[in-house]
């Protein structure tokens, strides 16, 4: 049974990767390999290093937000150094990037890494889930702003955009429900188990007890920490909008000075592709940029633009994978089963 499940996951991953690679190949063919290479050479190495530096700074802020969430859950002497959390997050990023569902796939790796640093599994899980919840909510809100702006500007009326509106709306309602249930102390996930009647199974029932205790830890984070919570929310929104800064930076070194409104659209609408079950949104992300750049009449090679972002991502993946290997973690194939 376990082998069959592993095989299905592998086939699902391979299908998503093949689809993405196929779309990417078609885009390269239509754009022209020569044009892509010329655009990348024109961009230059120094701007690429500058973009990587900006991204590392942003990644560092992501880590700081996670530390703000985790620290109150631990005794001062047991808190994890910042540099370890930074590298743990890099490993989680690598796992998420290389698998479908990029926004969530790397989180078990982060939990495992924290547990390896001596953090109880319930505490590690609570911190990672809350960090992910703040990140997804800010990201979805930011993307919703971009979609709303596109609709107002009349930049899209096709079924694809309307499906995006529906998908983002459902996800946003889901996240609001999570926060309301968590802040009020009612819990969210164990109620979903009961509504779905999965808790009637013995294995799920025992897991539900563990889940309730973990949800209690998440609820306790919101008690008496108004300033810290506001800082976490503020950082989440800043990091989401920082994507527009990256878009402006890359476009500038491609020789195009874009408007703030264009940067908003460039950093939101293609981001929907990263929520699809295709590893790294390969091909789909490039295709989204191609369609958007045409709509905005931007004289930027969309494939070259996306490759610049990919090069940054590949560097982060390399760091994350190397750190995971050094730590002795089985990054992709070992199923972690810890108890605290």
Task: Explain what you see.
By secondary structure, the protein is an all-alpha fold. The protein has one domain. Helix content is 74%, strand content 0%. It contains 13 helices and no strands. It has helices at 2-31, 33-43, 45-70, 82-97, 107-116, 121-153, 159-183, 189-195, 202-221, 226-253, 260-266, 284-296, 302-326. Helix 3 (45-70) crosses helix 6 (121-153). The longest helix is centred in the middle third of the chain and has 33 residues, at 121-153. It is globular. It starts with a helix and ends in a 14-residue tail after the last helix.
Structure at a glance:
This protein has helices spanning 2-31, 33-43, 45-70, 82-97, 107-116, 121-153, 159-183, 189-195, 202-221, 226-253, 260-266, 284-296, 302-326. Helix content is 74%, strand content 0%.
Throw out a few tags for this protein.
single chain, 340 residues, mainly alpha, 13 helices, 0% strand
Using DSSP, what is the number of strands? 0
Q: Treating each run of at least 4 consecutive H or I residues as one helix, how many helices?
A: 13
Estimate what percentage of residues fall within beta strands: under 5%
Mean pLDDT: 78
Q: How helix-rich are the residues, as a percent range?
A: over 70%
Topology:
Layout: H1 2-31, H2 33-43, H3 45-70, H4 82-97, H5 107-116, H6 121-153, H7 159-183, H8 189-195, H9 202-221, H10 226-253, H11 260-266, H12 284-296, H13 302-326
């Amino acid at each position: 049974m376990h082998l069959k499940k592993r095989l299905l996951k592998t086939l699902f991953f391979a299908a998503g990767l093949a689809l993405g690679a196929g779309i990417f190949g078609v885009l390269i063919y239509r754009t022209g390999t020569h044009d892509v290479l010329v655009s990348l050479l024109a961009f230059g190495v120094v701007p690429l290093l500058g973009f990587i530096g900006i991204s590392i700074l942003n990644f560092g802020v992501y880590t700081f937000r996670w530390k703000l969430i985790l620290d109150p859950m631990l005794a001062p002497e047991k808190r994890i150094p910042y540099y370890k959390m930074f590298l743990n997050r890099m490993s989680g990023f690598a796992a998420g990037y290389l698998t479908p569902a990029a926004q969530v796939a790397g989180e078990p790796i982060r939990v495992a890494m924290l547990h390896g640093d001596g953090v109880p599994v319930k505490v590690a899980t609570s911190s990672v889930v809350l960090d992910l919840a703040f990140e997804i909510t800010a990201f979805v809100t930011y993307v919703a702003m971009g979609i709303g702006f596109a609709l107002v500007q009349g930049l899209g009326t096709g079924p694809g955009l309307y499906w995006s509106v529906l998908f983002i709306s459902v996800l946003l309602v889901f996240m609001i429900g999570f926060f309301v249930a968590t802040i009020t102390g009612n819990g969210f996930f164990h109620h979903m188990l009961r509504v779905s009647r999965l808790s009637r199974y013995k294995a799920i029932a025992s897991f539900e007890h563990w889940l309730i205790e973990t949800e209690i830890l998440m609820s306790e984070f919101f008690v008496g920490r108004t300033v810290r919570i506001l800082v976490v929310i503020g950082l989440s929104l800043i990091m989401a909008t920082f994507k527009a800064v990256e878009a402006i930076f890359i476009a500038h070194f491609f020789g195009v000075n874009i408007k703030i409104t264009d940067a908003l659209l460039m950093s939101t609408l293609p981001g929907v592709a990263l929520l699809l079950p295709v590893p790294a949104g390969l091909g789909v992300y490039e295709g989204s940029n191609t369609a958007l750049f045409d709509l905005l009449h931007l004289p930027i090679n969309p494939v070259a633009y996306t490759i610049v972002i990919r090069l940054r991502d590949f560097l982060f993946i390399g760091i994350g994978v190397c750190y995971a290997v050094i730590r002795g973690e089985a990054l992709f194939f070992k199923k972690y089963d810890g108890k605290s």
